[in-house]
Amino acid sequence: MEQHYSRDILKQQIIEAGLKATHQRIVVYEALHELHGHHPTAEEVFQRLRPVNPSISLGTVYKTLDSFAERELVKRVLSEEGGKRYDANNLAHNHIYCSNTKEIMDYQDEELEALLVSFFQKRNMENFEIKSISVQLTGTKKDPDKQISITRTE
Amino acid sequence: MEQHYSRDILKQQIIEAGLKATHQRIVVYEALHELHGHHPTAEEVFQRLRPVNPSISLGTVYKTLDSFAERELVKRVLSEEGGKRYDANNLAHNHIYCSNTKEIMDYQDEELEALLVSFFQKRNMENFEIKSISVQLTGTKKDPDKQISITRTE
DNA sequence: TTTACTGCAAAATGTTTGCATAAGG
DNA sequence: CCTTATGCAAACATTTTGCAGTAAA
User: Fold this and answer.
1) What is the pLDDT of residue A1?
2) What residues have CB less than 8 Å from A134, skipping those under 6 apart?
3) pLDDT digits (tens, 9 = 90+) for B16-67
């Protein structure tokens, strides 16, 4: 489940995005992978990094996340709560949001993607080029302490 | 296109939501209807109301929008930009987001809703009750000055 | 060596809170 | 009346900015 990314690989990706691979950027990027699916704010990334990197500054984390988002190394996550949240780029474009616990969970579903792509091919969007389609399920966990699981019935 | 809501009707809805229908709440609610589809922030609502209601305070607008959202009179709109945005409740759960102009446009599509509802009935969501499904199309307007139009081809 | 990035601190924004006064039911 | 909402100002939180010093390429 927890995937490992070596710093060398992360460094490479930062360089490929056209940015200098500073130590701060590498550890921010690493933290985003470790927190993948948790959609942290700049503050949360900063708090996670601080113990090990005492000299890092919050301003740098803000700037770093901004530049990552601009270069599409990470994506900004939609939020109703009104703070900027980030996630390491990945394939899951869909989110499940629990309005009780405020959790935002990633949700990947190939079949859903395919369905939507084919749906929007049949729609004629004049003057708009679709870059991505994402679905947000809002609702409530029946048992806040348990996980949500999704299986196909059919 | 621009739909009219009399203050009496708005007042009625506020009361039905279990809130006292103060003048401030009525004009905030009215502004949200007038700005429907524009997804304003508290600040934007405040600026709109100020000329006609010089005594209204920004704090009240914040509190009002909060209580409206809590009572589900209005909905909070998802944003990547990290500010709280609101909209009068309506049937369109889908948004089209232009990453160049930062516009968020409402998009209603019965057929899409039906497709998704039936899709998720076939998925077995353990421990989660879906309240609403919304689709976000991210992309770019080809001509920033023109409107986006959507037609069915098939 | 040159350019771009960092850290720091201050400023700018955005949002919430507490409380005395005012208004709704 | 009694309760709840308002306005105001202060507190708090979040994000951006400017700049001198530092590190990457």
Assistant:
1) 44
2) A78, A93, A94, A95, B135, B136, B138
3) 999 999 999 999 999 999 998 889 999 999 999 999 999 999 999 999 999 9
SS3 of B56, please?
coil
Q: List chain A domain ranges.
A: 1-90, 92-154
Measured CA distances, B141 to A124, A137, B100, B101 (Å):
14, 26, 8, 8
Show the tokens assigned to B54: 């010089």
**pLDDT tens string B104-126:** 888 999 999 999 999 999 998 99
Q: Identify, with chain letter, the residue nearest to nucleotide C13 (CA–C1').
A: B83
Closest residue to A127, CB basis, from B99, B126, B142: B142
Domain over B92-154 is classified CATH 2.30.110.10: no
Nearest nucleotide by C1' position to the B55 CA atom:
D7
Contact of B95 with B105, CB cutoff 8 Å = yes
Nearest CA in chain B to A132: B138
